[in-house]
TrEMBL record:
Name of one Pfam family that matches: STAS_2
PROSITE patterns documented for this protein: STAS
Family membership: Belongs to the anti-sigma-factor antagonist family.
Stated name of the protein: Anti-sigma factor antagonist
UniProt-listed PANTHER family: ANTI-SIGMA FACTOR ANTAGONIST TM_1081-RELATED (PTHR33495:SF2), ANTI-SIGMA FACTOR ANTAGONIST TM_1081-RELATED-RELATED (PTHR33495)
Stored Gene3D superfamilies: STAS domain
UniProt domain STAS: residue ranges: 1-107
InterPro entries: Anti-sigma_ant (IPR003658), MlaB-like_STAS (IPR058548), STAS_dom (IPR002645), STAS_dom_sf (IPR036513)
Amino acid sequence: MYIRGDHAELVVGGRLDVRSAADARTVLHTALDDGVGDLVLDLSELDSWDATGLGVIMGAHRRAGRCGRRLVLRGVPPQMQRLLVATRLHRILAIEGGIGVESLPRV
């Protein structure tokens, strides 16, 4: 897993899972604490995430709210969009462009 960017936009790539969760959490929290306005999290280079990775995203979402900021997801891959819809988290998280629920393939 890698994260590059600044306090306004971060690109996450690779796998966001139990092995990379602590590092990802540290980077996200630092970006949220040190910046202002929306923090855009570009997930277009993310290969996969597990429940721990999703927990990191939700934790960053909560921390953003406490900091007076908003976490905005960009480029969410289709398989991860399905997970967000299945867990109904697409209703809570800010997703750039939204998720076209009707266009997602059924599994």
